[in-house]
Design brief:
- This protein is of the alpha/beta class.
- It is 38% helix and 20% strand.
- It contains twelve helices and ten strands.
- Strands 1, 2, 3, 4, 5, 6, 7, 8, 9 and 10 form a ten-stranded mixed β-sheet that branches.
- α2 packs across α10 and α10 packs across α12.
- The chain is globular, with a radius of gyration of 25 Å.
- The protein starts with a helix and ends with a helix.
């Protein structure tokens, strides 16, 4: 049996040791010369510099700096959704934005680690936009036959949907048009200078590059919604397209007071089961909570809503994201 005096002495030493540790930590935090605590490095794959993904990523990073300061987030540009999905699935980035059709296409093709993909939230819809000169003789997609058409970069979501829309209109991207792999960073200038006759774009409304082009050059947007049945007939990830209306104020100089019937596809915040549950929960909370702040500069983000954000088909919610949505369920 340990004598009372020894037990008392042991407790005193333990308490003194704890006090020393606490004092050391306090002095470390208060010291003006101390290094800041280490931050957890994370990467987000975004998109081309002039697209909505890149702008959204920049604003989300600012929101996360405030809400989750222990994260050190790096943004990685990409060609778009297809590259984003592959990059995250294979561990090249921790999370990203990608369209539902690109996610499903990757899964259907048996892409590496496709089974590890998870979602944090449904964000907003991309609207499919086909832009031509205002005085062009192109009035529907079928009229693109023989024309010079920019269909997006190889690994972009634009390329995926452009090839499908062309096919639905009876055109083969390799045989029936003069296809250019240019993306939104190049296509407005190429159209203005007459080097292409049309370009495809898939992005949130409004996309600044298209809006800026409409201010310096007279353009039109082609109607696309009549192709929906043929798209759905293709099955697979084509089922993720739906009809939508581009409101007249999206690009007022181009639309001249008229809505444009088009196609849309949902964007999803994508991660994997490698993401820590607590981090996934806090990132999801920031995504939903920063809607108004981000939406003030990225209008599409105004549509992010906690009631619809859980519908992330074709991916199941990450456990951390599910925990967040359960915590805010009415």
């Amino acid at each position: 049996m340990v004598p009372v005096s020894l037990r008392t002495r042991g407790r005193a030493l333990t308490a003194a040791g704890a006090a020393v540790v606490a004092l050391s930590l306090l002095l470390w935090w208060l010291s003006p010369f101390s290094e800041p605590p280490p931050r957890t490095p994370l990467t987000m794959s975004t998109g081309v510099s002039t697209g909505v993904y890149a702008k959204y990523g920049t604003l989300l990073r600012k929101a996360l700096d405030k809400d989750v300061p222990e994260i050190d987030l790096t943004l990685r540009p990409s060609e778009g959704s297809q590259e984003n999905v592959r990059r995250v699935a294979t561990g090249g980035s921790d999370f990203t934005i990608a369209t539902a059709d690109a996610v499903e296409q990757y899964r259907a093709e048996g892409g590496p680690d496709a089974d590890r993909l998870r979602s944090s939230a449904r964000l907003y819809d991309d609207y499919i936009q086909v832009v031509v000169d205002e005085d062009s003789d192109i009035h529907e997609v079928a009229d693109l036959r023989g024309k010079r058409v920019a269909i997006g970069q190889v690994a972009s979501g634009v390329r995926l949907v452009a090839e499908r829309v062309l096919r639905a209109a009876g055109l083969d991207a390799e045989k029936d048009i003069v296809a250019s792999p240019a993306g939104i960073g190049e296509t407005p200038k190429a159209l203005r200078e007459g080097r292409i006759d049309a370009f495809f774009w898939s992005g949130g409304l409004t996309t600044q590059a298209v809006r800026d082009l409409s201010k310096s050059h007279e353009i039109r947007l082609l109607p696309l919604s009549s192709l929906i049945d043929r798209l759905h007939h293709g099955g697979g990830s084509s089922s993720y397209y739906r009809t939508a209306v581009m409101p007249a104020d999206a690009y007022p100089l181009a639309q001249r007071g008229s809505d444009v019937p088009t196609l849309a596809v949902a964007n999803i915040l994508v991660t994997t089961d490698r993401m820590d549950d607590d981090l996934a929960e806090r990132i999801t909370r920031t995504v939903i909570g920063s809607r108004d702040h981000i939406g003030a500069q990225v209008h599409a983000a105004q549509l992010v809503d906690v009631r619809t954000a859980i519908y992330t088909d074709p991916l199941e919610l990450h456990d951390g994201a599910r925990r967040y949505f359960r915590s805010v369920k009415p």
